[in-house]
Specification:
The complex is a heterodimer of chains A (about 575) and B (about 190). By secondary structure, chain A is of the alpha/beta class. In chain A, about 35% of the residues lie in helices and about 15% in strands. In chain A, strand 2, helix 2 and strand 3 form a beta-alpha-beta unit. By secondary structure, chain B is α+β, with helices and mostly antiparallel strands. Chain B folds into 2 domains: about 80 residues, Alpha-Beta Plaits (2-Layer Sandwich); about 70 residues, ACT-like. Chain A, domain 2 (Alpha-Beta Plaits, 2-Layer Sandwich), CATH 3.30.70. Chain B contains 6 helices and 10 strands; from the N terminus they run E-H-E-E-H-E-E-H-E-E-H-E-E-H-H-E. In chain B, strands 5, 6, 7, 8 and 9 form a 5-stranded antiparallel β-sheet that branches. In chain B, strands 2-3-1-4 form a 4-stranded antiparallel β-sheet, sandwiched between helices. In chain B, helix 5 packs antiparallel against helix 6. The longest helix of chain B is centred in the N-terminal third of the chain and has 13 residues. Classes of the chains: A alpha/beta (about 575), B alpha+beta (about 190). At the A-B interface, strand 9 and helix 9 of A face strand 1, helix 1, helix 2, strand 4 and helix 6 of B. Strand 9 of chain A pairs parallel with strand 10 of chain B, so a sheet runs across the interface.
Chain lengths: ~575, ~190
């Protein structure tokens, strides 16, 4: 057995867990670990802010399905990670954060750069560790990786004191194997619950599948498809479910919820059976719970028992891994027709397509939807798109049709502005051959734009599309709809983003007319390096349709019909 | 209604904090929480009383299980179970009132554990109702201070979930007993 320092053990363990790169920022309390890094074949990506490191680890995890790793020092380094950890927690993303901590004898003394980061992150991690001895480093890291990616994935933080990094002990990988007596990631449903579910499935007349992030996390896309095809059940997607089922699939209705299509929400409301696959009935999906799908029986397939009956009371809960549950259900599901129900849903579409912004006459204005739609067509829908949070995020979800799992990465649950750029860096490390586009608003971009330097330093080929409307657009939209257009603190005075990119040595362009969108996107795609495009879009456009927060799903605010259309009717 | 949970946890730093934080974060209202060692090294046992309905009780249980350090949760509300609370009550006592207080203590099967010139400490164990009853009759004499442990509880009989944990010799046996290593655990709501 060889003696190693705690710092060396960190890297030994990470190597054995298959980690090839980490995202981090050095500092005093984590210096022993950084010093040991030079001996190991792990690539370190130097970020510009620790929040970026966590989003990169998150983006890496979401693009690859593997654990992403972020490293920071104690105190401010660790607290800067909080937003990224919470983001990963809300979206069930497996990341491991390693933070340095002051020496164990100094803990509790308010030493320089001391923060109780395990206390701070307790409610926003799946689990966390405070390691004060070198011999505890290996078990903590092994457990952390196991916990992060098993069951419902999530972030795990390991806080390692400086003396634990400096101390030496025998390094024994095998004896560090996870010993988690109380951890139960592998639940499966009872036979009687399967029976109950099958009775409901095989007798439903108006069923709808609610397809969530769990489809992607469980790798259940094919099974869900087979199930939907066999039983002829249409699928409504959550934001994080997008890509889990190909958008082009005839049974895929598209996104539901606050900014989902009206006919999708109506279908959900009229259903007699909802099959919730790996989703958690978030308020953005359900609207008013009191009036939510009042005539539907509900079957919830979910790996986390704590989600059962949390927001919506269900008739049958199948607690377990979605793929495993579907393997059991699929052969026992009877083939069905449901053609009446499906054609009814088609009728519900009504004039939605007419109201679609793509079909509006070209008034010379550049709409964000134009940009996204052109981007979708130019990239043949094959790009890996990472979005930020706000109007552009919803437009992306509406107009970029994803056919592959893990081809849309976005902060859903926490809605973290500033997520896109760093998450895209992580995603690019996970899938270096993918064409990665950052779609980001002018507000969110400025929250983490310092990571432009990381792109340059790491020579990363990212394409950045800023949807620039000079407002915090989604907030402005709420002010327009619900606060009588009192635009408190939403107008933005922005820098010249193209010049800013140039200052970083990044190729840039600025587009304000629709005809320039496609050529500029084409040039960006041809350029073998990062490009930033500043799309100056319509300032006061809104995302339609919209269900106001807490309202019934059918109370949708629709895009006002174009004048020429109503004129013709009269 | 008040529901009683028996919770076995690994005796590791911060576990009480994790459990308490969970209740705070999910806005479950803790009526009482007690924690102490068990017969097994490395395992502590909590009795948690929560004011909640049955549906939410399931989620309290599920959320407790999400804590990595929680070994076992048993909702003993509807089980045949023994629950006890312990109180120390210090009552003002004069030469005149002392015999009355001693008599009341005797009726409630409480023990007198300290007698001073001007006060008496009474120790009583029992259900919360019984303790409340004694407190009510002592109040007129002047209760100087009181301390209560909060409810501790245990299901009757040998075959309980908690007994499975208690019967296991080591933590790894707890693991096998509690989760059936490698095999799926049937779960029903």
């Amino acid at each position: 057995m060889i003696n190693k320092t705690g710092a060396e053990i960190v890297w030994e363990c990470l190597l054995r867990e298959g980690v090839r790169q980490v995202f981090g920022y050095p500092g005093g309390a984590i210096l022993p670990t950084y010093d040991a890094l030079t001996k190991y074949d792990i690539h370190h990506v130097l970020v510009r802010h620790e929040q970026g490191a966590t989003h990169m680890a998150d983006g890496f995890a979401r693009a690859s399905g593997k654990v992403g790793v972020a490293i920071a020092t104690s105190g401010p380094g660790a607290t800067n990670m909080v937003t990224g950890i919470a983001t990963a927690m809300l979206d069930s993303s497996p990341i491991v954060c390693i933070t340095g901590q002051v020496g164990s004898k100094l803990i509790g003394s308010d030493a320089f750069q001391e923060t109780d980061i395990t206390g701070v992150t307790l409610p926003i991690t799946k689990h966390n560790y405070l390691v004060t001895r070198a011999q505890d480093v290996a078990p903590a890291i092994r457990e952390a990786f196991y916990v992060a990616q098993s069951g419902r994935p999530g972030p795990v933080l390991i806080d390692i004191t400086k003396d634990a990094q400096q101390g030496t002990c025998e390094f024994d990988w095998d004896s560090g194997a996870p010993q988690l007596a109380g951890y139960r990631p592998d639940l499966s449903p009872e036979a009687c619950d399967y029976e109950k579910a099958l009775t409901l499935i095989n007798s439903a007349e108006r069923p709808v599948i609610l397809a969530g992030h769990g489809i992607i996390l469980s790798g259940a896309g094919e099974l869900v498809r087979s199930f939907a095809e066999k039983a002829r059940v249409p699928m409504a997607m959550t934001l994080l479910g997008l890509g889990g089922i190909p958008a082009a699939h005839p049974l895929n209705l598209g996104m539901m919820g606050m900014h989902g299509e009206a006919w999708v929400n109506t279908a959900v409301q009229e259903a007699d059976l909802l099959l919730a696959f790996g989703m958690r009935f978030d308020d953005r999906v359900t609207g008013n719970l009191k009036t939510y799908a009042p005539n539907a029986k509900k079957i919830h397939i979910e790996i986390d028992p704590a989600e059962i009956n949390k927001n919506v009371k269900v008739d049958v809960a199948l607690v377990g891994d979605l793929s495993e549950v579907l393997e059991e259900l699929l052969p026992r599901t009877e083939p069905r027709d449901h053609s009446q129900w499906l054609s009814h849903i088609r009728d519900l579409k009504g004039d939605s397509a007419v109201r679609d912004i793509q079909n509006l006459p070209d008034s010379g204005h550049l709409y964000a939807a134009h940009v996204i739609n052109d981007l979708y067509r130019e990239t043949n829908g094959r790009a890996l798109v990472v979005t930020d949070v706000g109007q552009h995020q919803m437009w992306e979800a509406q107009y970029y049709h994803h056919n592959e799992p893990r081809s849309l990465i976005t902060s859903g649950g926490l809605g973290t502005m500033g997520f896109a750029l760093p998450a895209a860096i992580g995603a690019k490390f996970a899938r270096p051959d993918a064409e990665v586009w950052v779609v980001v608003g002018d507000g969110g971009f400025q929250m983490t734009l310092c990571e432009l330097a990381t792109i340059v330093q790491e020579k990363i080929d990212l394409k950045i599309a800023i949807i620039n409307n000079g407002y915090l657009g989604m907030v402005r939209q709420w002010q327009e709809f619900f606060y009588e257009k009192r635009y408190a603190a939403t107008p933005l005075v922005n820098p010249d983003f193209a010049k800013l990119a140039e200052a970083y040595g990044i190729r840039s362009a600025c587009v304000s007319e629709r005809k320039d969108v496609i050529p500029t996107v084409q040039e960006a795609r041809k350029h073998p390096g990062p490009t930033l495009i500043d799309f100056r879009v319509e300032q006061e456009d809104s995302v339609y349709p919209m269900v106001p927060a807490g309202a019934d799903l059918r109370q949708m605010i629709r895009r006002p019909a174009p004048i020429y259309e109503t004129g013709a009717d009269e | 209604m008040l529901r009683t949970f028996v919770v076995y946890v690994e005796n590791k730093p911060g576990v009480l904090n994790r459990v308490a934080s969970l209740f705070r974060r999910r806005a479950y209202n803790i009526e009482s929480l007690t924690v102490g060692h068990t017969e097994k090294p490395g395992v502590s046992r909590m009795t948690i009383v929560v004011d909640t309905d049955e549906c939410q009780a399931h989620r309290v249980e599920a959320n407790l299980y999400k804590q990595v350090n929680v070994l076992l949760v048993e909702d003993i509300t509807c089980n045949p179970a023994v629950t006890r609370d312990l109180a120390l009550i210090k009552v003002r006592a004069t030469a005149e009132s002392r015999p009355h207080i001693l008599q009341l203590a005797h009726v409630f099967r409480a023990r007198v554990v300290d007698v001073a010139v001007d006060s008496i400490i009474v120790e009583i164990t029992g259900t919360e109702d019984k303790l409340d009853g004694l407190l009510d009759v002592l109040r007129p004499y002047g209760v100087i201070e009181m301390v209560r442990t909060g409810r501790v509880g245990m299901s009757r009989g040998a075959k309980t979930a908690a007994a499975a944990v208690a019967g296991a010799g080591t933590l790894s046996e707890v693991y096998e007993e509690g989760t059936g290593e490698g095999e799926d655990i049937p779960y029903s709501v």
